[in-house]
Write a structure and sequence with these properties.
The protein has 229 residues and is mostly helical. The protein has helices at residues 5-29, 41-67, 69-100, 109-116, 134-156, 161-180, 183-186, 190-213. It has one domain (5-213).
């Protein structure tokens, strides 16, 4: 298999679509953020899927950013950096939730309870150190990164502007949902974000398909000019 720019860009497009689909699916099957869930197969499966989703999303937004890097400017770079760091943190935390937190349920149940409750609006009892700030930092990276990344997509005029607008709306809805809805319903704010990733991935794939179908300009032979005497 020959690795080309087109191949890598299509891989990024497919990754964004799959990340969006997984992000939506996870919200409907996520178990309760309580320590009793740690011993269930559903907990492990959901958080492994969340880990995969974060990696796919990072690949996807990287391909999207590189496609419009010359036109997105500084806002595009900052938005990509913030959004990308969020997905790195998400992948690390989901890995810990899937494979590390269940290991010390018997010996330190309160620590496990506090870790799984970080994003469930539970005030931790244990001293979690820097982990306690993760929801606030993650929220800023998620909302700020998505807002700037969406603005960059609109400004660049390379991919679908509608997808950029949906990304901005999804980012703006998240803190509002967190302020007025219970946690179980707050999860549904992730649905428009998943749809935005799907739309951006599809737009990137379509853009590459259109570009690859344009035949190269014909090369014409021009007579050489005679050298001056």
């Amino acid at each position: 298999m020959r690795i080309t720019t087109l191949t890598l860009t299509r891989l990024a497009a497919a990754s964004a679509v799959l990340a969006g689909l997984l992000y939506i699916l996870i919200q409907f099957v996520h178990p309760a953020d309580v320590v009793a869930s740690l011993s269930t197969p559903q907990w492990a499966v959901v958080h492994v899927l969340s880990f995969v989703e974060a990696i796919l999303a990072l690949i996807g937004i990287t391909g999207i950013y590189l496609r419009e890097v010359r036109r997105s400017g500084v806002p595009g770079f900052i938005g990509y950096a913030l959004f990308g760091i969020f997905f790195v943190l998400q992948a690390a935390f989901n890995f810990a939730e899937a494979f590390i937190a269940p290991l010390f349920v018997a010996d330190a149940p309160q620590v496990s309870t506090d870790i799984v409750g970080l994003f469930g609006r539970y005030d931790p009892v244990s001293d979690l150190g820097p982990l306690a700030a993760l929801p606030s930092i993650g929220g800023l990276l998620y909302v700020g990164g998505a807002l700037l990344f969406g603005v960059a997509v609109i400004r660049a005029r390379v991919l679908s502007r509608g997808a950029g607008i949906l990304l901005i709306v999804a980012a703006a809805v998240t803190p509002v949902a967190g302020a007025i809805l219970p946690h179980t319903l707050e999860r549904m704010a992730a649905v428009p974000m998943g749809l935005a990733l799907i739309w951006l991935g599809y737009s990137l794939w379509s853009d590459q398909r259109t570009s690859s179908s344009v035949p190269p300009a014909p090369v014409t032979d021009t007579p050489a000019k005679p050298a001056p005497a």
